[in-house]
Amino acid sequence: MDKVSINESYSSSTYSKRVCSVESLETSTNTSDSAYDQAPMIPNNSPAVRPTTLVEEAGTFRGTEVAQATLTPAGALLKLNAYSTALLIPEGAIPKHQRHSVVLSIVRDDKHHVPVPTGPRSTYLSPVVFCGPVDTKVNKPIVMKLPHCAENLSNWAFSLYSAPDNVTAWSKVVTIGEETINTPALVQIDKRYAYVLTETFGKYVLVGESATDIQERVACKKLRLFICGPSTIPEFSDVSLRIYIVEDNPGAEERCRHCEQEIGGVVLGRSTVLHFADVGQGLIIDMQCVGGWRTKSTSERQTIPFSHVWNSNCTALHCSFTLCRTEHDKCDFKIEVQATQDCGTLESLSAIGAPATMSISSFVPMPKDGHCQHSSSSFETMTICSVGSGSGDHTNVLATDRFRLSKDVKRKLCRCLDPPTQKRNDWRMLAAHLNVDRYLTYFATRPSPTDQILDLWECRNRELNALQQLIEICRTMERPDAVAILEQIHTAPWV
User: Fold this and answer.
1) Of 50, 186, 202, 330, most Cβ neighbours within 10 A?
2) CB neighbours (10 Å) of residue 220?
3) DSSP, res 374
4) How far is CA 214 from the centre of its chain?
5) pLDDT at res. 108
6) Under a CB-based contact definition with an 8 Å cutoff, are residues 356 and 223 in contact?
7) Which GO terms describe its molecular function (predicted)?
8) CA–CA separation, 230 vs 318, rounded Å?
9) Residue 137's Cα: distance from chain center in Å?
10) What are the residues whose beta carbons fall under 8 Å from the beta carbon of 252, sequence distance 6 or more?
11) Residue 263: which pLDDT band, with cuts at 50, 70 and 90?
């Protein structure tokens, strides 16, 4: 697989290369009207809603970590906004007249993590996400959106792991670049998100390690540090401060809050981004105190071994410092923390960036950020094409759980773009423009390739101007018939 990318989308290197890959595909494509009406009918006396059976124990999920919906043949879009995670179940995924209760959740508790059987240099890149019930059957692939913390995508070898429950061991579903026609799931990696196409419900996590296909390349992921402690300054006793080191994904702060709630602590501060590279060197944390406080131990420095950070298996890794008063009458209290990867003899390594820093000047809980705090100002992916400016600001992201394209519009687009054309400006060129042409062979096996491409587009592109971008792509493809279909969509409430 070509590791070079446009706008850091993990796909083909240039548009011309993508078109070449389109031309290599056989033109014999199923030209049916997609799979909408191919589902078998079931009797009207079937149960209206099948009960949901969660694999997690009662109490595992909290309100911000679980979304539930009733799935009908019209499909569903479940979102966990605090974690930038979503599950799209397309229209026609279940037969007519069926209804199922489905959930999407973040699995946080460490007791529910069976370690992924990865190598010594593998690391978690996404949260563990569950969609279920695991026995839910669909006749069209679902699309799951997972945030990831990988930097410099071409330096990574990505693998997707899954498990049906909390007892069964994880199994590797696919390694990107090693897909076959029988691979049970496909993964599209964009700059900040991974999109999983699968027909199987269960637990999923994205794992990565340094790529070694051509030459040894150093993988680097982004971390954040959170400092936690008591909500008020004790007058006479010592103070214990805990530092958590977590993947820089949306929901990192919420994850630390959850850990601290169990011991009565609060989140006091958040660091800048820490770039942590696969170089075998540990993490050095220095703490300095002023204003009548000092660390109780003789050292203000702690070193965390590389493997404890890199192979944390999604645990809320932390170290602690105990502070004691030196002067009771001083009030200019301030704590500064600096974290950096031990460069050792690797000082010239560009993967190791500037130290992560944070400071607190009071024991006041850090206010919750209403938006997903993340190092990137454009966390929402804008990698599908070069049309429009696309700031990626959260104010520019669609908040509704409605589908952009109705069943009727998709059916018309499928009839329009599924049949092969002499100019090759059909579904294959659409896939090339959307940076998903790595999966041309897979799309060709679907009843409607266009239908599957648009399902992936629907989940990847929730920006307000995404529909206009799609129209511009169709214009570039010289498909005025597709443009006319899209322009007939009435102005929606979110525009």
Assistant:
1) 186
2) 23
3) -
4) 27
5) 74
6) yes
7) netrin receptor activity
8) 16
9) 24
10) 224, 226, 246, 373
11) confident
Residue 183, Cβ density class (10 Å: 0-12 exposed, 13-18 middle, ≥19 buried): middle
Query: What's the pLDDT at 484?
Result: 94
**Tokens at residue 435, please?**
């940076």
Q: Please, what's the b/e burial string for 126-145 (b: 16 or more CB within 10 A of its CB; e: otherwise)?
A: bbbbbbbbbebebebbbbbb
CA distance 171 to 152: 26
Q: Once rounded to an integer, what is the mean pLDDT over residues 118-130? A: 87
**What pTM does this model have?**
0.81
Percent of the chain with pLDDT over 70: 73
CB atoms within 10 A of CB 238: 11
Tokens 């994850």, residue located: 255
Alpha-carbon distance of 434 to 427, in angstroms, equals 10
C-alpha 183/C-alpha 201 separation (Å) is 15
Name beta bridge partners: 206.
160
Between CA 444 and CA 212 the distance in angstroms is 30
Q: Which residues are CB-neighbours of 163 under 8 A, at least 6 positions away?
A: 114, 169, 170, 171, 202, 203
Distance of CA 202 to the CA centre of its chain: 16
Tokens of 482: 């597709």
Q: In terms of Cα–Cα distance, which of 7, 356, 251, 341 is closest to 153?
A: 7
Query: pLDDT tens for residues 8-45?
Result: 444 433 333 444 444 445 444 444 433 333 333 333 33
Alpha-carbon distances, residue 495 vs 57, 361, 405, 407, 489 (angstroms) = 41, 43, 14, 19, 12
Q: What average pLDDT does range 369-386 have in this prediction? A: 34
Q: What is the pLDDT of residue 327?
A: 76
Instruction: Pull the structure tokens for residue 420.
Output: 């092969």
What are the two backbone dihedrals, phi and then psi, of residue 476, each rounded to the nearest 5 degrees? -60, -35
- Return d(Cα 95, Cα 37) in angstroms, integer: 9
The strand pairing partners of 382, in sequence order, are none
369 pLDDT band, cuts 50/70/90, is low
Calculate ∠ Cα 203-205-207, nearest 5°. Answer: 155
Q: Which residue has the tokens 């569903």?
A: 76
In this structure, are residues 286 and 331 in contact, taking their beta carbons and an 8 Å threshold?
A: no
pLDDT one-digit tens code per residue, 174-195: 999 888 888 889 999 999 999 9
Q: Could you give the domains of the chain?
A: 66-210 (2.60.220.30), 220-360 (2.60.40.2660), 407-491 (1.10.533.10)
Q: Which of 13-22, 221-230, 315-324, 358-367 has the highest mean pLDDT?
A: 221-230
Question: Which of these, 401, 480, 400, 409, lies nearest to 450 by C-alpha position?
Answer: 409
Coarse DSSP helix, strand, coil percentages of the chain, rounded to the nearest 5 percent: 20, 30, 50
* Residues 470/457, Cβ–Cβ less than 8 Å: yes
User: How confident is the model over 416-422, as a mean pLDDT?
Assistant: 94
Give the pair of three-digit tokens for residue 76.
């569903």
- Mean pLDDT score of the chain, rounded to an integer? 78
